[in-house]
Design goal:
The structure is a homodimer of 83-residue chains.
Chain A (H helix, E strand, L loop, with lengths): L1 E10 L6 H12 L4 E15 L3 H15 L5 E10 L2
Chain lengths: 83, 83
């Protein structure tokens, strides 16, 4: 079966995020009171798997392969069965 | 009150995504059967708002300001009250 997986890869909390700081200053100049802005990556993909838990395990392996363990954390945000 | 907002900004469906293609070929070389990989941005931030729906409206405005309407779509993924 086919599953749609959503993964988030974000910088760890202590790591300086220049892109986030830049976005924050843009938002401040637009009068939005946004704080602690952090920018990460979202990956959407289709996976072939026998069932949802197998798809989740594959997505977990993929997150581990793509994230830099020193600076980043990843989350398997969602696994959804495709019709 | 303070709210934590998560926004996703992704390329529209028809738009070619070279970064997604690159990730897809890396995953294929690692023997993962991932298809239609799309790479977008995730923004996490803290917003000051009177209530959750006001925070959601602000996050919506911010998404509109940051996404390129020609090529990108944004989703307010989550609004969470901070303790």
């Amino acid at each position: 079966m086919k599953y749609h997986a959503t993964l988030l890869i974000e910088l760890k909390d202590g790591i300086l995020d220049p892109q986030g700081r830049a976005v924050e200053s843009v938002l401040k100049s637009l009068q939005y009171q946004a704080e602690n802005v952090r920018v990460g990556r979202v990956l959407e993909m289709e996976l072939e798997a026998a069932n949802e838990s197998e798809a989740r395990v594959t997505a977990h392996h993929i997150g581990k392969a793509l994230a830099n363990p020193v600076m980043e954390v990843f989350v398997v945000e969602a696994i959804k069965e495709l019709a």
